[in-house]
Amino acid sequence: MCDLRRPAAGGMMDLAYVCEWEKWSKSTHCPSVPLACAWSCRNLIAFTMDLRSDDQDLTRMIHILDTEHPWDLHSIPSDHREAITCLEWDQSGSRLLSADADGQIKCWSMADHLANSWESSVGSLVEGDPIVALSWLHNGVKLALHVEKVRGSSFN
C-alpha cells in the first residue's frame, strides 16, 4: 500500500493517493531490507523491493509509479547483487540512478520517453564500498572559473 500525503491549508496533510496491489506471500517479499524511495519532478515515484522466488533466488526490483496513474505500477528487475541503498532522479525526471551495498551504480533511462519502459546502459562499480548517497553533479548551469581569481570574493 502506498499512502502519499500533500500539504494543505493550516499545516495539515491531505491524503492524495492510496494505492493497493495484490499482496505477496511472506515467503516472496523480504520486508527486512530497507526501502529506498525517490520522487521525481515528473511525479514519478521510484521505490525498491526485494522478491524471493520459489527456488529461493532473490530479485532486487525497482518499481516506478506515476502518481497521475497510480494503478499502473511498472517493475524493473535491477540486476543489483546486494540491497539497493539509494535512488536519485535527475533534474529532468527522465533518468534514475540506483546504487547498492556492494558499490554497484546503474543509470536507468526511459526508453522512447515512456515511463513504463526503462533501460540501463551505463553503470559503475566501486568494489566493496557500500553506496550511501547519490547525487547528479550537473544541473544544466554552466560555470566558468578563472584560476587566477581564486582569492577573489566572487569565487567564494
Strand order of the largest sheet: 3-4-5-6
Which sequence of SSEs, written as H and E, runs from N to C? EEEEEEEEEE
- CA radius of gyration: 19 Å
Q: What is the typical, i.e. mean, pLDDT? A: 75
Low-confidence segments: none
Describe the structure.
With 156 residues, this protein is mainly β. It is built from no helices and ten strands. The strands form three sheets. It has a four-stranded antiparallel β-sheet, with no helix packed on it. A four-stranded antiparallel β-sheet has the order 7-8-9-10, with no helix packed on it. Strands 1-2 form a two-stranded antiparallel ribbon. The protein starts with a strand and ends in a 31-residue tail after the last strand. One of its GO terms (cellular component) is nucleoplasm. It is found in: Nucleus. WD repeats lie at residues 77-110. Belongs to the Mediator complex subunit 16 family.
Describe the secondary-structure layout.
Blueprint lengths: L1 E6 L5 E7 L17 E3 L4 E9 L5 E9 L6 E5 L6 E6 L5 E6 L3 E7 L7 E8 L31
How do you describe this structure in short?
With 156 residues, the protein is an all-beta fold. 0% of the residues lie in helices and 42% in strands.
Keyword list:
WD40_rpt; activator; 4-stranded antiparallel sheet; 156 residues; 10 strands; Mediator of RNA polymerase II transcription subunit 16; mainly beta; Mediator_Med16; 0% helix; 42% strand; nucleus
